[in-house]
Amino acid sequence: MIYDCAIIGGGPAGLNAALMLGRARRNVAIIDNNKPRNAVTHESHGFITRDGVTPAEFRRIAYEEVLRYPSVEHLQTEAVDVRKNESGFFEVLGTSGLLVQARKLILATGLKEIFPEIDGFYSLYGKGLFNCPYCDAWEMQDQPLVLVSESPAIFHTAKILLNWTKDLVVCTHGRSSLSDEQKTLLQSRGIVVTEQPVAAFVGHNGKLEHVRFADGTELPRTGGFVLPKFVQAAPFGERLDCERLDNGGIKTDGVGRTSIPGLYAAGDTSYFNPSQVVFAAADGSKTAMAVNLDLTEEDYG
Question: Which cofactor is essential here (predicted)?
Answer without folding.
Answer: FAD
